[in-house]
Amino acid sequence: RWFAARHPRFVYIDRVVVAPGCRRHGVGRVMYADLLSYAEIRQPMLTTEVFIEPRDEVAMVFFTTQNFAEVGQQGLPNGRRVSLMAKELEPWAYVHANYLAKRDNPAPAHW
Hey, what's the torsion of the CAs at 51, 15, 72, 67, to 10 degrees? Predict the structure, then answer.
């Protein structure tokens, strides 16, 4: 809800879970690359939340190395705290200006 109150269009990454035996083999990065290739021409921003209390160092390293930046923090009812992170998707502006804005029927919000 935090992102929806501030941004009209975005893709929210809720959870990326990789089985323990498959970790450290690039599975998360492959899933992220696939999501990025889908989202970057459809929405202007990727968003996510990363636990900072207690701190999820693996997720924090992953998202910061993918150029996500903290745009806020939020306390949760269970006492945990999250870093609200976002990444602007540069291709969106070009696609929107050169293709979608010229259509009679622009792409729906879910496209």
Answer: 100
- By C-alpha distance, which of 79, 56, 71, 83 is closest to 6? 71
> Nearest to residue 42, comparing CAs of 77, 92, 97?
92
pLDDT of 109 higher than 90: no
Residue at 105: amino acid letter:
N
Q: What is the pTM of this model?
A: 0.80
109 φ, ψ (degrees, to nearest 5): -55, -30
pLDDT at position 91 is 87
